[in-house]
Structure formats: C-alpha cells, structure tokens
Amino acid sequence: MSSIDVGTPSGGGRKILRGPAVEKKAGKSRVQIWRDVRAGHFPAPVELGPNSIGWFEDEIDDWLAARRRRTYAAPKEVV
C-alpha cells in the first residue's frame, strides 16, 4: 500500500503517502528524507498507528512547489 485517503466530515479528504511513494515523488532516498525532516527542510510525517507513518500528499506538493528552480541561462558576456 502506498497511499491512503483520509476523509473529513465535510466530504473532502487528504491523501496520505507512505514511504516508497514519498521517496519517488520527492526524488530523495529514505535516509535523505529523514535528514531533511530532522533539519526542518522537509514536511514531518504523521503517525498512522503504533508502527506506521505517512506524509500528507498536499504537504509534499507544497514543498515541491516551494523549491527554487535552477536556471541555465547563457553566461553574460563581459565587455
């Protein structure tokens, strides 16, 4: 299982991603995700049970959207 839908009383829902899906979506290894969580650079997981955790998909999407884009513009000519 890689994702879980969490319904709310209003009918909406938040999708929870488990570890492998988060690794794939973020493009990071499990170890790097945990390093970033501890450093405050990646969303913290939520506890699903005594031995399971997951991440809200919308938080991962927000984190990805906030990443800086690398630009590959042509170098400026020095005159």
Task: Describe the protein's topology.
Elements: E1 3-7, E2 13-17, H1 19-26, H2 30-39, E3 46-49, E4 52-56, H3 57-66
Describe this structure in words.
- The structure is a single chain.
- The chain has 79 residues and is an alpha+beta fold.
- It is 35% helix and 24% strand.
- It has one domain (3-66).
- The model has no long low-confidence stretch (mean pLDDT 87).
Give me some keywords for this one.
79 residues, 3 helices, single chain, 4-stranded antiparallel β-sheet, alpha+beta
Average pLDDT: 87
Number of strands: 4
What count of helical segments does DSSP give?
3
**Spans of at least 5 consecutive residues with low confidence:** none
In short:
This protein is of the alpha+beta class.
